[in-house]
Amino acid sequence: MTNAGAAAGITALTGLVGPGITGATPDRPLKDPEVSPAGAPTTTTHLSAEQSAVHRALVDEWNPRLEGKTAEEILDWVNTYVTGTVAVTMSMQDTVLAELVQDRVHDADLVFLDTGYHFDETYEVARKVDERYRLPLKTVEPVLTVAEQDREYGANLYRSNPTACCRMRKVEPLARMLNPYEAWISGVKRVDSELRKNTPVLDVDRTGRLKINPIVAWTDQDVEDYIEEHDLIINPLTRQGYPSIGCATCTLPVAPGEDPRSGRWAGSTKTECGLHL
Ligand code: SF4
């Protein structure tokens, strides 16, 4: 693990305070973290009522029929039934979705949320993904750089208010990014957490877009097997005690046998960034 920010994050979420909280008084008042920076939408435009209704009908009809199907079969269904371009969200923890989608869904973009806080290893995986796959890789960034956010809201907001930080650096950029798409594919798995254990294969999000979870029934071992069988790009952190990788500032290694996601926002009650709620 080579991101220096990670070390700072380890102290942050175990209750210690950092320079942004106790440091010098800023020369102007800090902004309220509940108020996002101006200049960009914070939500996704709703699809039309007609299109939303079409998606709901697809979910009602096909969810029971796709349950138990393979990820490949689910993606073949996407290619047949979804019109328009599909966004494939990539955490760069692994590249399973890119591999699965590439030859099955012909109109798809890979999307990487660059929070500005990722591990160097994660950025390197993103670079290799761009080289290896034909699908366009679109990088989505928050309105503010990390330095600008520190200046506007106080240094290291992830320490004092990780929910606001995730909202401004993940949830809202994803919401803006989804505007041109009618569907998105995620790598959520039911085994990820208690909160995700009932995730369906197909869903309709709050904006009427289809959300497709092709590997929802996979186990962590299934992911490992697929990576090996297809010689996928490896994020080296997954071999160094990081089974679930988010921002370097908010991810700790996990001991063997521990809950794989327990290293995310460790020491706080936060378990989700909000992208999949
Ligand atoms: S995980 Fe969320 S709180 Fe932590 S740095 Fe990333 S965006 Fe901020």
TrEMBL record:
Q: Write down the SUPFAM superfamilies for this protein, in alphabetical order.
A: Adenine nucleotide alpha hydrolases-like (SSF52402)
Q: Where is this region: Disordered?
A: 21-50, 258-277
Q: Where are the transmembrane segments?
A: none
Q: Which Pfam families match?
A: PAPS_reduct
Chief localization class? cytoplasm
GO BP term, pick one:
hydrogen sulfide biosynthetic process
Required co-factors = [4Fe-4S] cluster
Listed binding positions for [4Fe-4S] cluster are 165-166, 247, 250
Q: Keyword annotations for this protein? A: Cytoplasm, Iron, Iron-sulfur, Metal-binding, Oxidoreductase
- Which reaction does this chain catalyze? [thioredoxin]-disulfide + sulfite + AMP + 2 H(+) = adenosine 5'-phosphosulfate + [thioredoxin]-dithiol
One GO MF annotation is:
phosphoadenylyl-sulfate reductase (thioredoxin) activity
Active-site residues annotated for this sequence: 273
Q: Where is the Phosphoadenosine phosphosulphate reductase domain?
A: 87-253
* Cell compartments where the protein resides: Cytoplasm
Q: Which GO terms describe its cellular component?
A: cytoplasm
Instruction: Give the record's pathway.
Output: Sulfur metabolism; hydrogen sulfide biosynthesis; sulfite from sulfate
Polar residues compositional bias, start-end: 41-50
Signal sequence bounds: none
**Note describing how the cofactor binds:** Binds 1 [4Fe-4S] cluster per subunit.
The EC number of this protein is 1.8.4.10
User: What protein family is recorded?
Assistant: Belongs to the PAPS reductase family. CysH subfamily.
**Chain's role:** Catalyzes the formation of sulfite from adenosine 5'-phosphosulfate (APS) using thioredoxin as an electron donor.
- HAMAP family reported in the protein's UniProt record: CysH
Q: What is this protein called?
A: Adenosine 5'-phosphosulfate reductase
Q: Which organism is it from?
A: Corynebacterium provencense
The record lists the lineage as:
Bacteria, Bacillati, Actinomycetota, Actinomycetes, Mycobacteriales
